[in-house]
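User: Structure please.
Assistant: Input sequence and predicted structure:
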Amino acid sequence: MSQLQKFSNSPVKASSVIGTNVVNRLGDNLGDIKEVVIDPCSGRVAYAVVSFGGFLSMGEKLFAIPFSALEYNVAKRDYVLDVSKERLEDAPGFDKDHWPSMADEKWNRDVYRYYDRLPYWE
């Protein structure tokens, strides 16, 4: 079995996912998971909100990453996102005090399209 896998064999608490590092395939640190966003109707995980940039949480930008775009690396206990730092910098993001309306279907579709993922609700 590969050390890099999309899903673990057992469920985990959201609190154990929050704070986990996110890296790209080159091993570059892309940030860490600040929140896990769950669709209350379907029970599916919609996004991991990842922070990137800034210093000591100042100036950091948040990104809603479709959870399906993340692969869990069991050996390193981090999540791998197959994007460069530059691509993440250009991704649709927001700051901690101004979250987007996650009920906005266009915003949701744009985010999933940016990461080349099929929306979880389809």
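The chain has one domain: 4-114.
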